[in-house]
Design a protein that fits this description.
2 strands, elongated, two-stranded parallel sheet, mainly alpha
């Protein structure tokens, strides 16, 4: 048969010689097997084979028999090796025997440590039991898996049903296991843990059980918090939660578990770790050693981490101020342990800053600030920059609205933020430069655009309080060369804010910024020209005119930023503005009272005040400004007398500074007057706050009518005294007046009383007509009395206001 006469299949099955490699042989051996499988599926009839085909089949048969023999030899070898291994001891058993010998030697050398292992870590001693379990599991793994004879093909519906059944079964099993495994915490268990922890050598196992019970108590709290976050749209972070062992039921057990943790966790950890910072050596990088440096820290680290995370979650949900104070004291003692966990310490820092900025109770804010400063002192490089940024942002957010209730909290945040900035001047300079530049950018935009929206970005409480906080920071950290360069740009921003809209409506804003600049100049010993801004209200004609009207309620300029059009027409606005001008004049001259150039400094202001005194027609304002002029001139004469004895020249700056510092420590006339004035002023402000808190009924004025006997002269009383002997008439009049008030309207008189008093004629009116006439007369009398009472109230208020003003700004002060 030639090649051309052969079919394709016969051509492929021809023997072309042994020119293939080993890899080709492997491929050839696999091809007939595939062809066999295909023939089974197709089930074609057998075809006659040639001699070449028979030779090829015989070759393949020889190969398959050889492979089967090799597989049988391998299985026999494995069985033999297993029998030998059963007879010989395994290396794991040999290591177990050596480990047991080491434990016996340890028991003889150090019995105390061996006893400690038996009590706390018994699993390390029971090494043989664990080894048997491992051996049994390895034998199971080595067992040969036998395939079944027939494999069944499963449909998609069967697979889905099986999966759903398996999932339902697994869920039921897990729920049943949890119900069986969870142990309810009782008061007896808590008492037992307390006895073990308060012993001289506390038990580590009881500490772990208490931490697990504390975690179980906070599971509901944590779940409620995550539900609130999900409602708000916040995604929950996935974290590996430890398995629960206990279940806390009831408020009494919850309180007992939390109370035991607060009392015993810190001393127990100190005893177990032998962590006593006062007795331990201090390192160069850290002022005090941390618990992570202790030898047993690795054993208890995970338990401490779980407890600290749970403590932060509990502190986040507390609302009662008394409970929050107790728990913050507990966290203050745990701060060295927090530093070993950076992620938990960040969450704690956020919580403390939130308490510092928004807590209503003052003691809670103070404790939060103590915790923040302790964290910064322990790890300055890690916490300082983040703390400064977060505290400033929270301060600006919480100073959006200012009221008598929020103003003390804002002042507290300013003082404490200045203390935080005093830790490192270099870091403070970076942040201060950044935020002062941000204020300057907003001011420049408002000046260039001159629109209402840009002005609103400047004339608000947040901008004003930002200027105030940086003035306080620079004044507290004054003797510092790095921060000295920030005084000039801050003053320029403040003055630009004052001059942006120089109208009477924004006088309160002008007063706030001027007061901040006065304190900055006093603390940093820098001269800031502020007299023109203080004297601005005196240039207006409305303050020089004679005032008319009544001030219903005084305006509190401490909590006002701008005035409305109706407030500008009231007398209380003018009175409050003059009080602020007087206060700022006295504060500014008090800061410059020790300077050698005080007489020359006061000349422009004295000239301006004298012009105002000539124009002004209001007696109260005249007294106030005249008092300032007298005090300033008196102090100027005092300074001229002192500097007349000076021997150094004007150009000798060091000598001038020394002379001013020496004079600053003495009693000067202006400083004495300012001290007494500040005491009276603070007393008045406290009285105003107390009057606001009173009820309306207590503020109603009492009307006192002068009696005729009091108006009469003593001579008339002596002459006509015999006619009116005794005071029974006055007592009867008071009794009748009180009875009439209690009874209300006059009752109709009976006919018998009328008949007994006067006989009734035919032409006389009837009883009903008499009663109607009397009722009308009583109504007219009541209306007349109400009109008189209103007139007397108005006159009394004007008189009292004049008396208070005369007393406040008298020459005796």
């Amino acid at each position: 048969m030639g090649i051309g006469d052969a079919t394709v299949e016969e051509f492929m099955e021809m023997d072309w010689g042994d020119h293939s490699t080993d890899d080709d042989a492997k491929v050839k051996t696999t091809k007939p097997e595939r062809n066999k499988k295909k023939t089974k599926r197709k089930k074609k009839p057998a075809q006659p084979q040639t001699q070449q085909d028979e030779n090829i089949v015989s070759l393949f048969a020889d190969d398959t028999t050889e492979k089967v023999k090799e597989q049988n030899d391998e299985t026999t070898k494995r069985q033999v090796i297993k029998k030998q291994n059963k007879k010989k001891p395994t290396p794991a058993k040999q290591s177990a025997t050596s480990h047991q010998e080491q434990l016996n030697a340890l028991k003889e050398k150090d019995p105390e440590f061996y006893k400690f292992l038996q009590d706390e870590e018994s699993g390390l001693l029971n090494f043989e039991e664990n080894l048997d379990l491992d051996a049994s599991s390895s034998e199971e793994e080595d067992a040969v898996h036998q395939l079944p004879d027939h494999l069944e093909e499963a449909s998609d519906s069967d697979v889905d049903v099986e999966k759903s059944e398996d999932e339902d079964g697994d869920d039921m099993d897990q729920e049943n296991r949890k119900k069986k495994e969870l142990i309810t915490v009782t008061e007896e268990m808590v008492q037992e843990w307390q006895n073990h922890l308060l012993a001289d050598v506390p038990s580590m196992s009881s500490l772990r059980e208490l931490i697990k019970a504390f975690h179980a108590a906070l599971v509901r709290v944590d779940a409620a918090e995550h539900e609130e976050k999900e409602k708000k749209g916040k995604k929950r972070k996935k974290s590996a939660t430890p398995k629960l062992k206990y279940k806390v039921v009831g408020a009494a057990t919850f309180n007992s578990v939390v109370g035991l943790c607060i009392r015993t966790i810190v001393p127990t950890l100190a005893k177990l770790l032998n962590y006593f910072p006062k007795k331990m050596k201090k390192t160069k990088k850290q002022k005090a050693p941390l618990p992570a440096t202790c030898k047993k820290w690795a054993i208890i680290r995970e338990d401490v981490r779980m407890y600290l995370a749970d403590a932060v979650t509990l502190a986040r949900t507390l609302l009662e101020p008394s409970v929050t104070r107790v728990f913050l004291r507990h966290l203050l003692l745990l701060l060295p342990y927090f530093i070993s966990f950076p992620k938990i310490s960040k969450t704690l820092l956020k919580l403390l800053i939130r308490q510092w900025s928004s807590a209503e109770n003052e003691s809670v804010r103070v404790l939060a600030f103590l915790c923040i400063t302790r964290l910064i002192t322990m790890e300055k490089e890690r916490f300082l920059e983040n703390t400064m940024k977060q505290t400033y942002v929270s301060y600006v957010a919480n100073s959006k609205f200012t009221s008598p209730s929020t103003l003390p909290m804002i002042n507290f945040m300013q003082r404490t933020f200045a203390e935080i900035c005093s830790v490192d001047a270099n870091v403070t300079y970076q942040f201060a430069f950044l935020y002062i530049r941000q204020l300057a950018v907003h001011l420049r935009k408002a000046i260039t655009t001159q629109s209402k929206e840009t002005r609103q970005t400047i004339y608000n409480w947040q901008f004003v309080h930002s200027i105030g906080i940086w003035c306080r920071v620079l004044s507290v950290n004054h003797p510092n060369e790095t921060l000295q360069a920030l005084i000039y740009p801050l003053v320029q921003v403040a003055i630009g804010t004052i001059e942006l809209v120089p109208t009477a409506r924004f006088f309160p804003l002008r007063f706030h910024i001027t007061r901040s600049l006065i304190s900055l100049g006093d603390c940093t010993n820098t001269y800031i020209p502020l007299l023109n801004f203080i004297m601005a209200p005196l240039h207006l004609n409305e303050f020089a005119k004679k005032q008319s009207g009544v001030s219903i309620r005084p305006l509190a300029f401490e909590t006002i930023l701008k005035l409305s059009n109706s407030q500008l027409k009231e007398k209380s606005y003018r009175d409050g503005a003059m009080d602020q001008v007087y206060d700022l004049f006295m504060a500014y001259f008090n800061t410059q009272a020790h300077t050698i150039a005080f007489p020359e400094l006061a000349v422009p202001s004295v000239v301006m005040l004298k012009k105002f005194i000539k124009k002004c027609k209001n007696t109260n304002y005249l007294k106030m400004m005249k008092q300032i002029v007298d005090r300033v001139l008196e102090h100027g004469e005092f300074i001229t007398k002192k500097r007349s004895d000076v021997t150094f020249a004007v150009t000798d700056v060091s000598a001038v500074v020394a002379w001013e510092n020496e004079l600053k420590g003495t009693d000067m006339p202006l400083t004495k007057h300012y001290a007494t004035y500040r005491k009276n002023r603070e007393r008045e402000l406290s009285q105003q706050i107390a009057d606001k808190d009173r009820n309306v009924e207590e503020n109603l004025p009492a009307i006192e009518r002068t009696k005729l006997m009091e108006q009469s002269k003593p001579a008339d009383r002596e002459e006509f005294g015999e006619l009116f002997v005794g005071s029974s008439d006055e007592e009867d009049a008071k009794a009748d007046f009180e009875r009439a008030i209690q009874e209300g309207r006059p009752k109709k008189r009976k006919l018998d009383e009328i008949i007994g008093e006067k006989p009734q004629n035919e032409d006389s009116p009837s009883d009903a007509e008499l009663d109607d006439e009397e009722y009308d007369e009583s109504e007219e009398e009541e209306e007349n009395e109400e009109k008189e009472d209103k007139k007397s109230n108005i006159s009394m208020e004007t008189d009292e206001a004049d008396i208070v003003e005369d007393f406040r700004f008298s020459d005796s002060d």
